[in-house]
Design a protein that fits this description.
- The protein is an alpha+beta fold.
- Helices cover 13% and strands 27% of the residues.
- The chain is built from 1 helix and 5 strands, in the order βββββα.
- The strands form 2 sheets. It has a 3-stranded antiparallel beta sheet, with no helix packed on it. It has a two-stranded antiparallel ribbon with strand order 2-3.
């Protein structure tokens, strides 16, 4: 796999913990969505890319968080 920015082949994959928050003052008390995507990092330039897991993606598409999901 090549880096999308510098075309280097020096890539590493990591599992990360990420909290995704909806912006704006109306969401100030919203806890957000916890996700654990795999992140591909270029070890030459630092460019990183990830894919949001399907479960969390559905919540983002709906604009809701687990605390308000039924």
């Amino acid at each position: 796999m090549y880096c999308a920015l510098c075309q280097s082949r020096k890539q590493a994959e990591f599992t990360v913990e990420m909290m995704i928050h909806f912006g704006g003052p109306k969401n100030i008390d919203d806890p957000g969505i916890l996700a654990f995507p795999k992140v591909s990092v270029c070890l030459e330039c630092g460019f990183a890319a990830f894919t949001v897991p399907e479960t969390e993606l559905r919540l983002l598409k709906a604009g809701i968080t687990p605390s308000t999901a039924s």
